[in-house]
Amino acid sequence: MKYKNSEIKIDQLVTYLSASKINLSPAFQRGHVWNVRFRRKLIQNMLEEKPIPAIFLYKEASGTTYLYNILDGKQRLESIILFIGSQRDDLKINNWKKYFFRPVDHSAGQFWVSINGGKKTFKDLDDTLVRNFSEYVIPVIEITLDENVSLDEIISLFVDINQQGVAVKRFDIVKAMCKNDSILKASFRQIALEQKRGDDVYYKMINNNFTQVLKKLSIIEKVPESNSKVDKMWEKFLEIVVFCISKQHQKPVEILKGFIGGKLKGEYKLTKQTLDILRRIFSLLKLTYSDNKIANSKLAKDYTHFYTMATALAATDLLTKFNNSELGGKLISMSAIVDAGKDQTKKVTKGIREYLELASKHTTDTARRARRNELFYEMICSL
């Protein structure tokens, strides 16, 4: 992830909010937690030109619905929206109520602040004070996602930056994400269960074919902390789930961007048919992994090769073309060839050279992923 220190004036913020360019409800956000006392204190500090903490914004690519998604500072922005509303012509947020869905939120608007010993709403402020308020500068940290960003990193970032005010636990973030998106929830349910220990709530990895196979991946195996291990497992499983549903390769970072910005909400559904295919794939792999030759191979350990294997099984007729014993044997033979870096059987010499070259760099490029699938299928059929 990359970070850029920036700033935004209130009048510019009002313009963005009026044009619906800031998403206040991305997948990571929890429900409203501030009461009017906190909101009033924030606004009074701003009117007195005191500094407030920076807000964290994830910047979208140009041409998308939103310019920014809020990662931290939602309560501050909501307080500003509620205070300003549409009471004045010189500074107002058009259709401000669209940011709030409950009647209680609407009735909380136009709250007063203490000015020179009196109680005043935004409408009651004198013009000079409003002009000064419109020039108030809010510090901003813009976050962009690079190609290698992971779900675990994003969750960790959100936990870290939300320790001021009402602290957030890792479980809260995962739960909020699942609540806001059915595919995230359905995928997570295959990996972990909600557990309670006294007043604390956490999640525990399920022991099934999905987790037994995914645990073999080096990228998951090397993660020491159990919750982070579940996050990483969830992320990789989600990528395969999205492929099984869409039958299209996507860069991992684009999937994460889609869920953060809500662009994929409702687009993917984990149907019984898709789940049955996934179960069949992972059941086959778990059975085949009983042979250490493949269990300790690059096909099982290296995510680039594993992703190719899993998606090739999902996208082609391999599961119906061969029985489990035949297909398992072919996968074991393929694992030996990939590990050796050459074809000692002389059956797939040309294909393995191109496959290994495609697997060596730009491994998440969608065209290279599709070509690896084609080669993998051809080689498995030839072995």
Short description:
The protein has 2 domains: 143 residues, no CATH class; 223 residues, no CATH class.
Structural notes for this entry:
This protein has 383 residues and is of the alpha/beta class. It folds into two domains: 2-144, no CATH class; 160-382, no CATH class. It is built from 20 helices and nine strands. Helix 7 packs across helix 8 (182-189) and helix 13 crosses helix 18. The two termini are 42 Å apart.
Task: Please outline the helices and strands.
Layout: E1 2-9, H1 10-18, E2 22-23, H2 36-47, E3 55-59, E4 68-72, H3 74-84, H4 103-107, E5 113-115, E6 118-120, H5 127-134, E7 137-144, H6 151-161, H7 170-180, H8 182-189, E8 192-197, E9 200-205, H9 209-214, H10 218-221, H11 226-246, H12 252-261, H13 272-288, H14 292-295, H15 298-301, H16 303-315, H17 318-321, H18 324-340, H19 349-358, H20 366-382
Helix pairs in contact: 2-3, 7-8, 8-11, 13-18, 16-20, 19-20
What keywords describe this structure?
about 10% strand, two-stranded antiparallel sheet, about 375 residues, elongated, 5-stranded mixed β-sheet
Radius of gyration of CA atoms, rounded to a whole number: 26 Å
Number of helices: 20
What distance lies between the first and last C-alpha atoms, to the nearest angstrom?
A: 42 Å
What is the helix content?
40-55%
Neighbour order of strands in the largest sheet: 1-7-3-4-2
Q: How much β-strand is present in the residues?
A: 5-15%
Q: How many domains, as an integer? A: 2
**What is the structural class?**
alpha/beta
Which sheet architecture does the biggest sheet show? 5 strands, mixed
Q: Give the overall pLDDT as a whole number.
A: 85
General form: elongated
SSE string, helix = H, strand = E? EHEHEEHHEEHEHHHEEHHHHHHHHHHHH
Contiguous runs where pLDDT drops below 50 for at least 5 residues? none
Write down how many β-strands occur, each being a DSSP E stretch of 2 or more residues.
Answer: 9
